[in-house]
Specification:
This protein has 182 residues and is mainly α. It has helices at 5-52, 71-83, 87-95, 97-113, 119-149, 153-181.
Length: 182
């Protein structure tokens, strides 16, 4: 047995333990934001159930428009919300539940990005997560404005832009996390 052999073995063991410890830390840091996300998702399920009683199934809310919307679509959504008198519930959940959700998922994505070894990719993921959460919050404020003041075209287009930014950032983040996990 060479004199340097035990040291090499100890260094390898230390590196392995540090790596597995770091990955364990990532998951332990992700538990709280994941719990927050699950609570918010349960709240969204409740909101959709309550709104679903009053709105036809073919009417999707602003948040769920994956390809954006224009003034005509916004007017249709607003007419349904106002016609069924569920606009107050929608506004309330937009300003509470849908403000907490971006904070929760941004925190979750931040915790997951900590497990990414590539520094540039990790920074890009963190920036994308913040951009997504910021877009979601801006979208929420715009949609509340739409409900309160009507479908002003400039606010509709702005809200639609933030909706698109939110939804189209998500696949980029998921791809980055998948690449970082390799």
């Amino acid at each position: 047995m060479a004199a340097g052999e035990p040291e090499d073995r100890n260094e390898d063991t230390a590196e392995t333990l540090a790596s597995s410890s770091a990955k364990g830390t990532v998951w332990s840091r992700a538990l709280v934001p994941l719990s927050g996300c699950l609570v918010c998702l349960a709240g969204f399920w409740w909101r959709m159930r309550e709104l679903g009683r009053a709105t036809p199934p073919e009417v999707q809310l602003f948040d769920t428009q994956l390809f954006g919307y224009g003034p005509a679509k916004a007017e249709a959504i607003l007419a349904t919300l106002r016609g069924e008198d569920v606009a107050p519930l929608y506004v309330l959940t937009q300003l509470t539940l849908d403000m907490a959700f971006p904070v929760a998922y941004c925190s979750l994505l931040r915790a997951l990005a900590r497990g990414v070894e590539l520094t540039r990719l990790r920074r890009a993921l963190l920036g994308a997560a913040v951009a997504m959460a910021g877009s979601d919050i801006a979208e929420n404020l715009c949609t509340v404005s739409l409900v309160r003041y009507g479908a002003q075209p400039h606010v509709v287009w702005l809200a639609s832009f933030f909706t698109l930014a939110k939804w189209w950032t998500l696949p980029l983040i998921l791809a980055g996390l998948a690449i970082g996990a390799l």
